[in-house]
Amino acid sequence: MIKVTILGVSSAKPTIGRHQSSQVVNVNEQYFLVDAGENAQRQMAQAGISPLKIRKVFISHLHGDHIFGLFPLLSTMNLLGRRTALEVYGPKNLGPMLDWYRTNFEVQTDFEVAFHEVDTTKYQKIFENRTMEVWSLPLRHQLPCTGYIFREKQKEKNVDKLAIEKYSLSIKDVLKAKQGEDILLPSGEVLKNESITFIKELPRSYAYVSDTSRSMMVARRISNVSVVYHEATYTQEFQKIARKRGHSSALDAAQVAQRAGAERLYIGHFSSRYKDLTPLLEEAREFFPNCQLAKELETFTV
Amino acid sequence: MIKVTILGVSSAKPTIGRHQSSQVVNVNEQYFLVDAGENAQRQMAQAGISPLKIRKVFISHLHGDHIFGLFPLLSTMNLLGRRTALEVYGPKNLGPMLDWYRTNFEVQTDFEVAFHEVDTTKYQKIFENRTMEVWSLPLRHQLPCTGYIFREKQKEKNVDKLAIEKYSLSIKDVLKAKQGEDILLPSGEVLKNESITFIKELPRSYAYVSDTSRSMMVARRISNVSVVYHEATYTQEFQKIARKRGHSSALDAAQVAQRAGAERLYIGHFSSRYKDLTPLLEEAREFFPNCQLAKELETFTV
Q1: CB–CB of B32/B21 below 8 Å?
Q2: Do A64 and B100 touch (CB under 8 A)?
Q3: Which of A145, A153, B144, B256 is the most buried (most CB within 10 A)?
Q4: Is B211 one of the catalytic residues?
Q5: B265 by DSSP, 3-state: which?
Q6: B contacts of A16 (beta carbons < 8 Å)
Q7: What is the nearest CA distance from A154 to chain B, expressed in angstroms?
Q8: For B77-115, what is the HEC assignment?
Q9: Is the dihedral of CA B282, B286, B292, B294 positive or negative?
């Protein structure tokens, strides 16, 4: 199960009610921080998520509004007595930034901060474990920028209990069947895997797409992703500014989600010019009805 | 008139309800930011103070909890279209930090950031204009650290209207009297300055004392300051930890304020271990009754 807790939905200039980009993605109780705008740590606290739970941090690009909250968060992790290494993924220059931070602000953090450079020009798997994968997703912004896709892996198949009884399957047979193999019975009969197994839950996936101007390449790469978060800094009225600054309109976000065949779209990264966000939501919904505004401190299930 | 708006009262580890150190000191409508913990800019917005109003920033020392909010604030000033130079005062290494910030986070700010190094070992005047002065105040912390004292200058004397009429004083005479001179009348009579002038308001002063272990040298140097803000990270119970970490207890703060002969004391920089701050207030008040807890988003007049 993938759950996403939104910490910030503002673009570069925060407002009283809206923080800069940051969210926590929870994939089967593995917690990942995606971008870290200023005050991300207090937002996490408000959302009831301890910084010690965070296994990895994924940074999209090196504009301050996506990383100003990272350094204070590292300090707080240290003060909380963290010992587990923290793995930080992001564009090349984030490495020297982290070194600089450690030289200038703290004598030494008591936990390792391991940096993994992400090639922002490549769509590729950058991490996987037994249950999930993370992919980089090149975006079109003012400077090297990558989105991230979180994909659950297909869980093992379930074996039909009635079949186990009927054919007196051994534990070995059951394990084989879970892996998708056919079963040869002592009688010589072959049980086709499909006839004795079923899939309980299909794997889910989530794409984080911020910051970028509209890209149909992005849409292709996230095709069949279950849920998409896409930036929507402006309404169409400011389409020109959006393009110039490497941002999207709400309509852009909707078009990408529709082309990708997503089930649901969340929009965020709103310009401070919008006190009321309804125009952004309405613009996106007209094209892609299953759209929601990302809301700070709210959690949605993918 | 000096007014102080508190933005943060937490020590290094912020809590949900408390931000790291930061406050705005307003001396006769000249606005100064003193320290800039994370989220200082949103706290300023909450308090209704535009970042464009800030003339100068004074940083006490280079622990992250006192400067993490500075860089995002500079970004926001830029996004707001600031053109006026910002003068930043602080310990030596703050200069390279500001340079690093400008190289890494923004192509270029459209306003000048002028850095003034403050010698944290010297008690001296670091800025003055027609109406006020700022002094550095060496503190005893883990690394070079300075407090700041804001002093109003004595305003011109007022000349008694009845005296002006009675002696038919010329404008020239009045201006002389305002400067404290005696007046020679055409009759040869000399009017003593004290007999025809009065002082409407005595100049006020404010000392910002954070972070430091208790220092009677500090108390001497802030003697006769009207109002003192002094850090009080712990209650006496943790006196040993306080000393070891270069911090003060509430009692320490009270003793310094009392020795300095302050009218009023505000305590802040509270450890996250205190959910309820009453014990800190009670401890300080027992020794120095005119003590208050500094409260975020509240403004007091010095």
Answers
A1: no
A2: no
A3: B256
A4: no
A5: strand
A6: 42, 45-46
A7: 38
A8: HHHCCCCCCEEEEECCCHHHHHHHHHHHCCCCCCCCEEE
A9: negative
Whether residues B105 and A79 touch (CB distance < 8 A) is answered with no
Scan for tokens 């008694």, then name that residue: B160
Work out the number of other CB atoms within 10 angstroms of the CB of residue A277. Answer: 19
Task: Compute the 3-state secondary structure of chain A and give helix, strand, coil in percent, each to the nearest 5.
Answer: 30, 30, 40
Closest-CA residue to B281 (of B294, B262, B264, B263): B294
Mutation target among A18, A104, A107 for the B interface, most CBs of B within 10 A: A104
B68:A72 CB<8 A? yes
Chain A residues whose beta carbon lies within 8 Å of the beta carbon of residue B65? 72, 75
d(CA B24, CA B5): 5
Could you report the per-residue pLDDT of B255-286, keeping only the tens digit for each? 999 999 999 999 999 999 999 999 999 999 99
Mean pLDDT by 10 residues, chain A (302 residues): 97 93 97 97 96 97 95 93 96 92 75 95 97 97 96 91 91 91 91 91 95 96 96 96 96 97 98 96 97 98 96
Query: Any long-range contacts for B233-237 (C-beta under 8 Å, 24+ apart)?
Result: B233/B11, B233/B269, B233/B270, B233/B271, B234/B271, B234/B273, B234/B280, B235/B274, B235/B279, B235/B280, B235/B283, B236/B283
SS3 B20: strand
Q: What pLDDT was estimated at residue B201? A: 83
Q: Which helix (H) or strand (E) holds B301?
A: strand B299-301
What sign has the CA pseudo-torsion A292, A296, A298, A299? Answer: positive
Closest CA to A196 of A221, A175, A211, A177: A177
- Helical pair B250-260 and B278-287, crossing angle rounded to 10 deg: 30
Q: Please report, for residues A24, A64, A138, A147, A215, the alpha-carbon distance to residue A212 in angstroms, rounded to integers and kept in the order given.
A: 20, 16, 9, 9, 8
For chain A, which residues make up each domain, given as ranges? 2-155+201-301, 158-198
Residue A146 near residue A118 (C-beta atoms within 8 A) = yes
Please state the pTM of the whole predicted model.
0.90
Chain A residues lying within 8 Å of B46, measured CB to CB: 16
Judged by CB atoms closer than 8 Å, whether chains meet at A12 and B79 is answered as: yes
Tokens of A118: 């992400």
The residue ranges of chain B whose pLDDT is under 70 are 106-108
CATH topology of domain A2-155+201-301: Metallo-beta-lactamase; Chain A (3.60.15)
Whether complex ipTM tops 0.90: no
Q: State phi, psi for B58 to the nearest 5 degrees.
A: -115, 120
pLDDT, one tens digit per residue, over B102-153 is 888 765 678 999 999 999 999 999 999 999 999 999 999 999 999 999 999 9
Question: Kind of pairing, strands B125-128 and B113-117?
Answer: unpaired
